[in-house]
Amino acid sequence: MNRPFRIGIVGSGAVARLCHVPAVLASPLSALTALVDPVTERARGVARDYGLDPVIAPSLDDVLDKVDGLIIATPNHTHAPLALAAIAAGVPCLVEKPLCIAEAEGQRVCEAADRGNVVVAVGYCLRFNEGVGLVKQMLDEGSLGAVRQFHIQDGSVGGWSPESGYILDRESAGGGVLTVTGSHHLDRILFWFGYPDEVALQHDAAGGPEAHCLATIRYRSRGLRIDGSMLFSKLVRLDAGVAMRTELGTLATGVYGSPVLWRGADRPGVVAELRGVRASRWHPDKTVFQRQLEDFIEACRRQHPPAVTAEAGLQSVRLINELYRGKVAGGATAREETA
Amino acid sequence: MTTSASPSRSDMRVAVFGASGFVGATLTERLIDAGVDVRAFVNTSGNAWRMARRGIPIRQFDITQGSGIAEALAGCTHVVNCTRGSDLVMLEGLRRLLRGARAAGIRRFVHLSSVAVYGDPPPQAAVSEGAPAEPPRGSYGWLKLQQDLCVERAHAHGLDCVVLCPPNIGGPYSPFFAGLVDDLRRGRFVLLDDGDAPVNVVDVDNLCHAIELALTADQGDGRRIFITDGPKIRWRDLIDALVPLAGRAGPVPSLPLTDTFWSPRAPIVARSSPLRSLLHLLSSDVRAALRKDPMLESIDTTIRSLVARVPLVEAQLRNRVEGPIRVARIGEQGRYTSAFSRQQLRMVAHELGRAESVLGYHPERHFDAALERYARWYRETYILDNPQSQLIADMREMLAVQAD
Which of B1, B24, B62, B73 sits at a 20 to 30 Å CA gap from B338? Predict the structure, then answer.
């Protein structure tokens, strides 16, 4: 039997405390051996709260020889530099999303990981909801028919509050609600449909990060003709969900792991729940963070790609940045602003 | 009192506490747009997006911590308290804020109270502010009443205070309006007697206008002042304006007010007695919690097996501890679960006499204009006129089927 995979978590803020530490403790595959935070007292606080005794260090360099893999859960602008440092030492890492702010640094991460044959996974944890995989399977099989439209929305009044407050700083977060909330859903459409042909963004930023935005996404190549929209907000609560109109009917699901529902065009009065026939890879009680961690550990042990690779993470950043730049048909730039 | 001798806005530095909330953010934006020097304080950064998007500097400050208040208020001339939160924030936090404001020589402290202090439903005398305020102990209204008493005491001790008392607040970002639209969409809301009862509502900009008047009024008196959009608005006026946003076909259902379902709610806190407390300790709920401990579980099992040997005693004891078996009455009214429906029982229209005489307040925006503006904002924010809107409506409908 394998010994537990020794995990070090870099950053001991809210996502580490509430999501990653519980995932490491819940998994029989892993053990938390190090916590890294320049504010070591914060890391000690996390260790104390969970009754743990890991190595506490202010710097990544202090723990590289004490772990089998790292979870990088720090402010967004530090993700790529920390990942590069880990890769240089040959240590695999699961990097919280987004992989990077600038595409160039993400490219460096991908190249370094390739060169060093080091596993890098990106923390788009919603991929580990069963429904996301089921929809992908049905799209690939063609059992939903050709997709014509999709819409995804997710919004709350405020919400997630990192201890450092970095998400309100555009430079540190890499953007506003599109990056903070929307990037999970951009990853989802990249997974389902691939890279879009035309994108545009309307948003409300006026000197700071946008708090409410509408992304328009179009597919016009590879035989696809899909009009999509994505609405994200930190100002109003939105009924969070995903909807897809196909030539055969309408699919709807929540964004955080609810069932996949189907209403066939031939039977509009009936809504059915869709379930996969194959047994799930995951125990239903495992959180998406535990599933993501175990996928990362298996990728490291078996030397195969994780579910969300560094390349997938880079694609997502590229799409975010193109939305911010306002890529539209023909490559023109149009950044619209709502009143 | 009038606003004629009010200080110039250029002389003011206003500290807004609770600046990330619905009212606080609207006020902060308005004051900044008007060129007022504002210091915006928030408890956590998570809710401060509305200001962050405009690059408005925010300061994180926990009013329940005594330290740092002097530094936070240094150079400020006025304070507006829009904070909400736990009992600790609302009571201890406010006390610390008032002490700090007095020590800092703040010229005017504006506090937001709530009509909830008059209870729900309020007494008919609550058309004016002098009505008895007797909300159930521990309720939100009770907390707001304790706050008002703190502010009144601070005023008596020399801190010039104005206390504004709004009802439900409408306008862009209003949780009240958004909740009503949601409940209308889901079919949870019902009008009583065709919505003939008065509704007390104030547009957030009218409230902020009142706060601005309160900042510059000659003198505060530390007592509540009602701020509304006016007294002649009925529930059906409000619902008629919001129904088109809900995208729901058919008329809003109406029930007669005489229906027993709509009788006023029982008090929130049951009357206490030593016997009631003792019986509660013996109840199955408490025993279930205690049984998590192995030793207490063993004791409970022993006692139950002893009692079970005498069936009549067991039945009598169970009846005494748990009470008789109750079966809830289930009528069609049960589908109307919106908490807003009950608000139609309030039946009181709060008057603006003190607001006019103390502050010179008249609503900046008429109710109809406020609702039109809200509808425009809602349609844009929730993309009701987008080509995808039918798909979004279908998604909501399908997810609602699953949720039901």
Answer: B24
Parallel, antiparallel, or unpaired: how do β-strands A69-72 and A93-96 relate? parallel
Q: Which residues of chain A have pLDDT under 50?
A: 328-339
Residue type, B325: I
Position B402 scores a pLDDT of 76
What kind and span of H or E run contains B300?
A: helix B294-308
DSSP per-residue codes, B103-145: HTT-SEEEEE--GGGG-SSPPGGGGSTTS---PPTTSHHHHHH
How far is Cα B347 from Cα B195, in angstroms, rounded to an integer?
Answer: 11
Taking one residue from A and the other from B, the number of pairs with CB-CB distance under 8 angstroms is 120
| Residues of chain B contacting A, Cβ within 8 Å | 20, 44-56, 58, 60, 173, 175, 178, 380-383, 386-388, 391-392, 394-396, 398-399, 401-402
CA-to-CA distance for A203 and A225, rounded, in angstroms? 25
Q: Which residue does chain A place closest to B377, by CA atoms?
A: A339
Residues in contact with A57: Cβ distance below 8 Å, sequence separation at least 6, in sequence order? A34, A35, A36, A40, A43, A63
What is the CA B263 to chain-centroid distance, rounded? 22
Contacts of residue B314, Cβ cutoff 8 Å, sequence gap at least 6? B307, B308
Residue B79 pLDDT exceeds 90: yes
**Contacting A residues, span 200-229, partner chain B, CB-CB under 8 Å:** 204-212, 214, 227, 229
The residue type at A68: D
Which pLDDT does position B283 carry in this prediction? Answer: 82
- DSSP per residue, A59-116: SGGGTGGG-SEEEE-S-GGGHHHHHHHHHHTT--EEEESSS-SSHHHHHHHHHHHHHH
